[in-house]
Design goal:
heterodimer; A: about 110 residues; alpha+beta; hypothetical protein PF0899 fold; about 30% strand; B: about 375 residues; alpha/beta; seven-stranded parallel sheet; 12 helices; 10 strands; extended
Chain lengths: ~110, ~375
């Protein structure tokens, strides 16, 4: 249930943005949860809905992109896309993979009024 | 009506959708948008691009912790596992073993649990300073919790006089001053017709205030930046600044703590042989985040069906660079290697060694392949 903490973190990012660049409320929020970010999307949506009332996030629509992660395959010496830490290299089938991206949860863009 | 632009047509639709036009008089109301304010050149509905990492605030505090630990010569380890893997027993045994091997070395513990101080009490019984952090509903420790706990540890107090409080007071003063300034301006406008002298006085006060406020502004970040520098000097000058090992025992949970950096030198995942050997695959994020996996309770191996080799293979599948130690906190078997690992100062070394070995191997294969290619035409 760390998604509730993450939802709180998202709200903090929004409030900080509002302090810098005033707006009334967020109408649309676009997030990006990398495939290895460890974020359960349903739980995150639930948490955001739970904390939204009374905040600038109330009534906002939310999109969450889930881009593939990239990893460096040692035997292939090249970067490959993976969806989970259990995936083998799509080229050689090996597991000597070192994740290089896809671990972040980011607030990408807001539509505000 | 002008045919070019539609001017003098009171019913024309304005170019800015946020402007309301009165249907009969043609009066324009610019504050009709949702934001109720008109900003030239900017539509009220707008997009803000951010690309901000949600864990950025935590990671910032984590790097402050890291700097703070370094300035106190503290090496911090974040111990993570599922509940019941024997973390606290291992910690107590480790503290006793470290005391024997290095009587001068300081050891401290930050204990994370949802409730109770049972674990911190067990640690304190060994003589090591411990702070219990109850996360309440939280499922993990975060960097601010560790910062707060670290500032309350005994070893920390010894190096530090309390100095944090004034910072807040300043911020408040600053705000108040702003309010005052406003008031002055207001009065100023109303009393416009009064004598000039008065006005002068006002202005004087005003600029004085301003200077004051600016002064605060400067002091504020400066103070913050300096606090670390003084820490540095302080700990270097301090004769008691001996190397310290800080164990942060995270909440028993193999999911959430993987995502939160606390400022540690390494995460250590503890897995007991009474659990499933497939846990590294079931909870890959945690084993991918850990530098070391400890297989604990190996004294029980004869009684359980735990395939050590399979478990290691699974762990390396999610994290090719992970180091693995087998030990029993109860019998003491394997404790020596664990202490060696804790006292090694550079934990990146092993991973780098593994990479160098791999590079050397690949270069050898490449050379072999090249040799074969050059040999083939000769055969033909």
């Amino acid at each position: 249930m760390h998604e509730l903490s993450l939802a709180g973190g998202i709200l903090r990012v929004l409030e900080q943005t509002r302090a810098r660049d005033p707006f009334e409320r967020v109408t649309h929020l676009r997030l990006e949860a990398g495939a290895l970010s460890g974020v359960e999307l349903h739980a995150l949506r639930f948490a955001l809905e739970a904390i939204a009332p009374g905040t600038c996030l109330e009534h906002a629509t939310i999109d969450i992109d889930e881009p593939a992660a990239t990893a460096w395959c040692l035997p292939c010496s090249q970067s490959v896309d993976i969806r989970s830490r259990l995936d083998p290299c799509p080229l050689c089938g090996g597991f000597q993979l070192q994740a290089t991206s896809g671990t972040e949860l980011r607030v990408m863009e807001l539509q505000v009024i | 009506m002008c045919v070019v632009c539609g001017c003098s047509n009171p019913g024309a639709t304005p170019s800015d959708p946020n402007v309301a036009v009165h249907p009969t008089t043609g009066d324009l109301h610019f504050g009709a948008g949702t934001a109720r304010v008109s900003v030239p050149g900017m539509s009220q509905a707008r997009a803000i691009k951010l690309e901000t990492d949600v864990l950025g605030a935590n990671n910032e505090v984590a790097s402050q912790n890291r700097a703070h630990f370094a300035s106190h010569d503290v090496t911090a380890y974040n111990l993570v596992s599922s509940p019941g893997s024997g973390k606290t027993t291992l910690l107590c045994a480790t503290i006793e073993a470290l005391k024997k091997r290095h009587p001068d070395m300081a050891v401290a513990v930050i204990e994370g649990d949802q409730q109770t101080s049972f674990d911190a009490d067990r640690i304190r019984a060994t003589g090591a300073p411990a702070i219990q952090v109850n996360t309440g509903k939280g499922c993990h420790l975060d960097a601010p919790m560790v910062a707060e706990a670290f500032s309350r540890l005994d070893l920390h107090a010894a190096h530090h006089p309390t100095h944090e409080e004034p910072h807040h007071a300043h911020a408040h003063e600053h705000e108040h001053e702003h309010e005052h300034e406003h008031e002055h301006e207001h009065e100023h406008e109303h009393e416009h017709e009064h004598e000039h002298e008065h006005e002068h006085e006002h202005e004087h006060e005003h600029s004085h205030d301003h200077f004051h406020a600016q002064g605060h502004d400067h002091v504020h970040p400066d103070e913050h930046g300096h606090s670390h520098d003084t820490d540095h000097v302080h700990s270097h000058d301090h004769p008691h600044a001996e190397p310290t090992i800080l164990f942060i025992e995270n909440v028993g949970n193999l999911v959430c703590p993987a995502m939160w950096d606390l400022g540690e030198a390494a995460k250590v995942a503890i897995l007991s042989v009474t659990e499933g050997e497939d846990k590294p695959l079931k909870y890959p994020d945690m084993f991918a985040a850990a530098k070391l996996m400890i297989l604990n309770k190996i004294d029980l191996l004869p009684h359980v069906s735990f395939d050590v080799a399979r478990c290691k293979e699974f762990a390396r599948r999610v994290n090719p660079g992970i180091e693995i130690l087998e030990l029993s906190a109860t019998t003491g078997e394997g404790m020596g290697a664990w202490l060696d690992w804790l006292l090694a100062d550079d934990h990146d070394r092993h991973a780098t060694d593994a990479l160098h070995a791999r590079i050397a191997q690949l270069e050898a294969e490449l050379a072999q392949a090249k040799a074969q290619i050059t040999l083939q035409p000769a055969k033909a």
